[in-house]
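agent: user wants the full assembly modeled, not chains individually. Plan: 1) parse entity lines 2) check alphabet per entity 3) run joint structure prediction 4) return tokens. Steps 1-2 passed, two entities, 692 residues total. Proceeding.
--- entities ---
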Amino acid sequence: MSAKTGLERINHTFAVARQERRAAFMPYHALGYPSRQVTIDAIAALADAGADLFEIGIPHSDPLADGPTVQTATHQALMQGTTVTACLEMVRELRDRGVTQPFCGMTYFNPLYRYGVERFVNDAAAAGLDGLIVPDLPPEEATELEQACRRAGLATVYMLAPTSTEERIRLVAGHATGFIYMVSVTGITGARSELPPDLAAFVRSVRRHTDLPLAVGFGISTGEQAAAVAAIADGVIVGSALVRAAGVDDDLATLKALAADLARGSHHPAA
Amino acid sequence: MPNSTAGAAHGKQTVNYSAYPDESGHFGPYGGKFVPETLMPALDELEEAYLRSRSDHDFQEELAYLQRTFVGRPTPLTYARRLSQHLGGAQIYLKREDLAHTGAHKINNALGQALLMKRKMGKTRIVAETGAGQHGVATATAAALLGMECVVYMGTVDMARQEPNVFRMRLLGTEVRPVESGSKTLKDAINEAIRDWVTNVRTTHYLLGSVLGPHPYPTMVRDFQSVIGREALSQMTESPDGPGRLPDAIVACVGGGSNAIGIFHPFLDHHEIRLIGVEAGGLGIDSGAHAARFADPKLGRLGILQGTKSFVLQDDDGQIALTHSISAGLDYASVGPEHAWLRDLGRSEYTFCTDDQAMQGFKLLCELEGIIPALESAHAIGHLLELAPQMDRDQIILVNLSGRGDKDLGAVNRVLASEKS
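--- prediction returned ---
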């Protein structure tokens, strides 16, 4: 790997996508699901299918922002003994296997807090993570994490939601590095049949306050939806639909086909 | 007033308790707001509306009116003569929250928050979690009274052991949604209630039932429950039916800790009074099957659960531990942040009662006082077996009898049957 920091690697990924007038395809996978070995194979398959940046889920017993698909997957991962340490080992293994795309670790605050904020950030950076997203940690409570990430060169990604006020948008834009995770709907993670009609307006309202890349997630499950999102945002995040696909068959054929479709959509924005 | 001198006289730290939480919702290192961004604006709005209501005379009048005419406040103070004689030590007084409408202190907070929605925020849909079902019933009741839509999430384990309350909620027009995830108890019900809230936050208020969750909940719930302590203070010192003086100790059970904070808070400045919280010791601390956050240094660590930083039962990897208590209302992995802070300050202390000790307390109160307590409150009574005999006959213990035991008859029956067999 290059000597770049995680944040620089993430910035580079979005710069390239912008230059090529496309969005970044950003798949999520829950580490340890459906098993440790399949996790490695699934992320490698997603990398081959055109992923630009990964969200790497570290399982927690109480994922209160997640819908049933991710809840079930992370629960299964925990039942198989997926510890935080095991997650960092998987990240290392993926890097050894030649997966080079940036990784954003996604976990709830308690596992990270118990591990020790600074220790976690340093071990995560050493293992090959490039940024962190902690959904239950708003900027107000994140001073220690931000300082540790700054020292280790990791991005601190925050979320914004359709309920976010101007004041909150300004606050988050001032603290986020790498990109902002735009939660498309008020709700929890999970595939939905339609994108919310006010999504473009939401993206525009945040765009007025920041030049950071804006990546949209929650509810996206098809290539067509990905292309629609790619037309208005810098990144397309897909979680539950891919997690479900990863559990379908042993050779990951379903996952690969869906990932190819989503990558195509993300890379060819709808007119 | 003894407030200014009491701390110095007893050599304890003099702390301005009313200065907590700070502006960001922290009680020292505890508390705060640990929630997804989607909810942050709702918390800001809630805090703003709540602060307005505190100084709104009309709102406070309406709440007081409902407390008098609907809840039946003030609840009585009962001298437990035969229990006191039996234990042979301190004189025991019971603050009778079991006599409040719906059978527990939970109505104080449910009504307060529901009225806040009705008068200050215009939200017409309420979601709530419930463990023992007392908060669920209280919320369903408040929703019926004020004409609001109500959904209560309840773990299926709790639905089985608190069946009468499930029926009550349904009669009151509330939809009870079973929760099958995790340990199928209170924590999992809170997760589901929060997921509903995140999804419907524009129209829905989360009516949290204890001094838990993100700021401003621990403060707001405390304030709505402090009516217990304010009444008790006046009944102890001024009522002809009371002892005519302050107690030497106050005892309350602690799940999330709302009945305990409610009775403790108005007494905080009286430093000479011991404030004792009783956690659920389950099958014993060594068994790991308990909900005693402060008593188990191995599992009970500083952590973040469901919006707040406090002591949390968890494993070495930061995953939340499964808890056990005979009492559904105490069966929770974390504890209100203000309790953790008062404990750090040395102002309150915490002990625990096992399931067996709570059952002993339960039976004693039934047979000696003619009061069937909730299994939660039976933990406070259970601790008296140890505490009262250590104290002199001229000393006084005030116990918050937080709820009545009708809901527990099935569970108690099963325990008694298994003891016989």
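agent: reporting back. Chain A touches chain B at residues 60-65, 67, 71, 75, 78, 83-85, 108-115, 135-138, 140-141, 158-165, 168, 172, 183, 186-188 (CB under 8 Å). The beta strands of chain A are 24-30, 54-57, 103-106, 131-133, 155-160, 180-183, 214-217, 235-238.
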